[in-house]
Backbone:
């Protein structure tokens, strides 16, 4: 009976979050599902450069021309892998380098929910990935000394990151709280993630 009560309690906590993520995935065009091939298991010998690149605005290019078909971009995004020496498109038979100008993905939307009394931030990327900012998908802030700008990034999977676009970045700042006199952070899934320094204008 105790075990049953514990399972029911766990389900009551996870169900609202599952419902939120499923709805966001459907809105992102994933129909609630997004299967990922086991790229970590593939080790093809062929490795080449065919002019694949992802620019800082999240657009994909091949041999100098933009890849405009969203379905193709989403398909390619599922076979991306980050290795020690770079980011690649990987299939069971070949491996080609992808030149990434900034980050391979863009976080184009962040939704704020309260689940069981905890603030939970759900990210949607430009290619339809939907996940929660948590220990497995940490948020980090990068400060550019030259421009004076802070840019947040969130890990999508296996070292592949999404750059947070301007609009959701403003949302993160709005939901933030002070860490000390100069720094702010934002909480998600019970973890505080630093957003950087706040400089008074």
Residues:
């Amino acid at each position: 009976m105790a075990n049953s009560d514990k399972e029911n309690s766990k389900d009551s906590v996870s169900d609202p979050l599952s419902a939120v993520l499923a709805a966001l995935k459907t809105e992102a065009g994933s129909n609630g599902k997004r299967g990922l091939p086991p790229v970590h298991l593939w080790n093809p010998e062929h490795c080449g450069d065919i002019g694949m690149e992802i620019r800082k605005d999240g657009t994909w290019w091949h041999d100098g021309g933009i890849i405009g078909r969203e379905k193709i971009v989403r398909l390619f995004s599922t076979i991306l892998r980050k290795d020690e020496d770079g980011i690649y498109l990987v299939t069971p038979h070949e491996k080609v380098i992808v030149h990434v100008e900034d980050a391979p993905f863009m976080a184009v939307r962040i939704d704020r929910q309260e689940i069981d009394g905890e603030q939970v931030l759900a990210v949607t990327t430009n290619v339809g990935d939907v996940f929660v900012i948590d220990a497995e998908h940490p948020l980090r802030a990068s400060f550019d000394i030259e421009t004076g700008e802070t840019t947040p990034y969130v890990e999508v999977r296996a070292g592949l990151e999404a750059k947070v676009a301007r609009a959701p970045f403003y949302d993160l700042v709005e939901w933030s709280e002070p860490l000390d006199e100069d720094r702010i952070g934002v909480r998600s899934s019970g973890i505080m993630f630093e957003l950087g320094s706040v400089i008074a204008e």
